[in-house]
Amino acid sequence: MATVLERVTKVVVDRLGVDESEVKVEASFREDLGADSLDVVELVMELEDEFDMEISDEDAEKIATVGDAISYIEGKVS
Amino acid sequence: MGKLNGKTAVVTGASRGIGRAIALQLAAEGANVVVNFSGSEQKASEVVQEIQNIGSQAIAVQANISDSESVQQLMNAAIEQFGAIDVLVNNAGITRDNLLMRMKEDEWDEVINTNLKGVFLCTKAVTRQMMKQRAGRIINISSIVGVMGNAGQANYVAAKAGVIGLTKTTARELASRNILVNAIAPGFISTEMTDTLPEDVRSSMLTQIPLAKLGNPEDVAKAVVFLASDDASYMTGQTLHIDGGMYM
């Protein structure tokens, strides 16, 4: 079973077309990974599908880095 | 069969008037149609029946488009039935005409909520699906009065002008995802509403129209088919004026 980090990394690599090595916990989607605001919205949509959860707009706005996404998801699934 | 074979279209306010003609025309081009209605269930089922008679698929779905939950249920029903939403036609609209000085706050609110907020809510609700599909067409029915103004319709005109602005912004936001958003501004179209106008009002209206006649709902519906089809794949953020030359 892949870890949350591995699954998030895969979604980010697929969606943003970045190299796996760039997807670090502290990496910001917009500043470090070249995402525009619509990319981030789509990324959140894909994370919702991947982890079968609903992420509210309010929560989605707080997800700026890979680490934010991971801790949000871990907080929800555990 | 047609230009829209296998596509799925959601048409709001499709039980009567222009919406009905749009639903039928899309179906005639091979589209599956979700016929939204708010009150006229009987009329909506007649439209569904007519569509089935010409060999396309359709369902009627009741929804109040000024309510986000109701809108979500409408779009869910469409996806459940047909698996996609390729085309959204924001057509539903109401009038509560009054002079500005006499217009009540609730007359303003009702019209803005249905005719403008409704477009926002329906657009927002299909965007997720269309982004996933990497394709979609959104066609908003505005009005000539949204461009020219019209005494006695401050609420309606504000909403219809708002729809044009919303069309341009949505077009810009979603262009990179291949979701094209355009508006149509019909002029005087022969519907139940214009059929009841007194003869003198009708004839004075006609003097302002270069083509000197009212349009038919089908004239608008054919423009919708164009905007929904591959023929319009290089246009977004535009407003098509289907008005016999009244505004130019």
TrEMBL record, chain A:
| PTM | 4'-phosphopantetheine is transferred from CoA to a specific serine of apo-ACP by AcpS. This modification is essential for activity because fatty acids are bound in thioester linkage to the sulfhydryl of the prosthetic group. 4'-phosphopantetheine is transferred from CoA to a specific serine of apo-ACP by acpS.
Q: Which residues form the Carrier domain?
A: 2-77
**HAMAP family in the record, alphabetically?**
Acyl_carrier
Q: Which PANTHER family match?
A: ACYL CARRIER PROTEIN, CARRIER DOMAIN-CONTAINING PROTEIN
Q: Do you know which SUPFAM superfamilies this protein is assigned to?
A: ACP-like
The entry's protein name is Acyl carrier protein
Q: Which Gene3D superfamilies does the protein's record reference?
A: ACP-like
- Annotated organism of origin: Ureibacillus sinduriensis BLB-1 = JCM 15800
Which function does this protein serve? Carrier of the growing fatty acid chain in fatty acid biosynthesis.
Give the protein family.
Answer: Belongs to the acyl carrier protein (ACP) family.
Q: Which UniProt keywords apply?
A: Cytoplasm, Fatty acid biosynthesis, Fatty acid metabolism, Lipid biosynthesis, Lipid metabolism, Phosphopantetheine, Phosphoprotein
From TrEMBL, chain B:
Q: In which pathway does it act?
A: Lipid metabolism; fatty acid biosynthesis
**MF-aspect GO terms:** 3-oxoacyl-[acyl-carrier-protein] reductase (NADPH) activity; NAD binding
What's the catalysed reaction? a (3R)-hydroxyacyl-[ACP] + NADP(+) = a 3-oxoacyl-[ACP] + NADPH + H(+)
InterPro entries given in the database record: 3oxo_ACP_reduc, KR_dom, NAD(P)-bd_dom_sf, Sc_DH/Rdtase_CS, SDR, SDR_fam
The processes (GO biological process) annotated in the record are:
fatty acid biosynthetic process
UniProt domain Ketoreductase: residue ranges: 7-187
Principal EC category: oxidoreductase
Q: Which family does it belong to?
A: Belongs to the short-chain dehydrogenases/reductases (SDR) family.
Q: What does this protein do?
A: Catalyzes the NADPH-dependent reduction of beta-ketoacyl-ACP substrates to beta-hydroxyacyl-ACP products, the first reductive step in the elongation cycle of fatty acid biosynthesis.
Q: What is this protein called?
A: 3-oxoacyl-[acyl-carrier-protein] reductase
Which species does the entry assign this protein to?
Ureibacillus sinduriensis BLB-1 = JCM 15800
Its taxonomic path starts at: Bacteria, Bacillati, Bacillota, Bacilli, Bacillales
